[in-house]
Amino acid sequence: MYGGDEVSAIVLDLGSHTCKAGYAGEDAPKTVFPSVVGSIDQLGSDDTVKSEKDSESILESKNGVRPSDSDAAKAKRKLYVGSQALGYRRDHMEVLAPLKDGIVVDWDIVDSIWDHAFRERLLIEPTEHPMLLAEPSSNTLQQRERTAELMFEKYKVPALFLAKNAVLTSFASGRATSLVIDSGGGSTMVVPVHDGHVLQKGVTSSIIGGEFLSQCMLKSLESKGVIIKPRYSFKRKEVRPGEFQTVDLDFPNTTESYKLYSQRVIAGDIKESVCRAPDTPYDESAYANIPTTAYELPDGQTIEIGADRFKIPDILFNPSLVQTIPGMEGFAGSASSIRGLPQMVIESINKCDVDIRRELFSSILLSGGTASMQQLKERLEKDLLEESPQAARVKVLSSGNATERRFSVWIGGSILASLGSFQQMWFSKAEFEEHGSSYIQRKCP
């Protein structure tokens, strides 16, 4: 079909926290950048914007595409994609996420993210490369068709394949049957995979992901009087050689969402640097005198983090802990309905056929950025041994390499797209033109 040697496929995994893209056959993605974008509405601002828009409209009408109303609305907002563009503070810039619970809610943003990945980061022409895209296990038919339309009609790709996240994680570890725990930025999903297919009836999910834990960390520190200053809100001035003083800067037009985004980046780094899952369920009194760990904030102040190092990760196992964090009360009502990780695993396995339960218990795979937290594997295995049936041999597997855990979905895609036997599976442009976008259900089960 697409003789694997001449042109390598591009593997793209757009997660709720980061977008990973690179060439099939490589062992890590070429580029990783945030999957949120900065957006500035340019309504009724000065004439320069107007003249820019006029030239855009002229350009569009030249191509025979008249801007419709939605395009006019789109033309009025400017999107900034990538870590560099987001790292630069701009007045009135909102931070928007294209995905909610793994499902796309804003296609314009997804389009701008793909475009950034192809043209700015990988520096490729999408018309020359087949594309393998990772998709959430609960993706809907409409979403898949929309993806196919955008890829074939806008980017004119020669071929496309959509693969489920959990299946790719399974392939990355060399298994066809496993129970995949995918804990990423936006949510945690437990997905049974059997012979390379997702068993939809066994999928369970929870809204607790990395972003949520970062938010808990932020609120918990604030309640202790630690103010995390975003990087744009101060500058460091040298008073004497080697001695710096922090000067606060004031930007009244910074949006709340950008401020929160900047704080979350720092809170996320604190979480990744000092947190680890506790060996036993978190208990306020037992962890009260725990030794603290120091962390230096960007503005130079050093904070000491004690019990939070264990309490925040334990929310994955015991969601009701959220109620003890000041500022997260709004969530507390729904916390009671959310199950911890071990309960989700047991529930997911129990929804599957009896014949494969044993096999699922013995190959539980951890993937995603949140799952690469220290001690998480050991703690989960311990909890599952206590709660699972006696006959089950529980084995939680996770790659020893943090990079591999974080990018396991992408790596699975990279392995799959470079297999010789996979080359006849692609959904080609010719098939798209003949059968339409609904044919994707046939080609990518």
Percent in strands:
15-25%
Strand order of the largest sheet: 3-2-1-9-10-21
- Note the main sheet: 6 strands, mixed
Low-confidence stretches: 45-69
Name of the level-1 CATH class of the domain at 210-336: Alpha Beta
Percent in helix? 25-40%
Per the principal axes of the C-alpha atoms, what is the gross shape?
globular
- What's the end-to-end separation, in Å? 19 Å
And the CATH topology of the domain at 210-336?
Actin, Chain A, domain 4
Alpha-beta content class = alpha+beta
CATH architecture assignment name of the domain at 210-336: Alpha-Beta Complex
Number of distinct helices: 17
Mean pLDDT: 88
Describe the secondary-structure layout.
Layout: E1 10-14, E2 18-23, E3 31-34, E4 37-41, H1 47-62, H2 69-75, E5 77-80, H3 83-87, E6 94-96, E7 99-100, E8 103-104, H4 107-121, E9 131-135, H5 141-154, E10 159-164, H6 165-172, E11 178-183, E12 188-194, E13 197-198, E14 204-206, H7 210-223, E15 234-240, E16 243-248, H8 256-274, E17 293-296, E18 302-305, H9 308-314, H10 329-335, H11 341-350, H12 354-362, E19 364-367, H13 376-387, E20 396-397, H14 402-406, H15 408-417, E21 427-428, H16 429-435, H17 440-443
Biased composition (Basic and acidic residues): 47-56
Protein name: Actin-related protein 4
Pfam family, one: Actin
Please characterize this protein's 3D structure.
Strands 3-2-1-9-10-21 form a 6-stranded mixed β-sheet, sandwiched between helices. The two termini are 19 Å apart. By secondary structure, the chain is an alpha+beta fold. Helix 6 packs across helix 15, helix 7 packs across helix 8 and helix 11 crosses helix 13. The protein contains 17 helices and 21 strands. It has a domain of 127 residues: Alpha-Beta Complex (Actin, Chain A, domain 4).
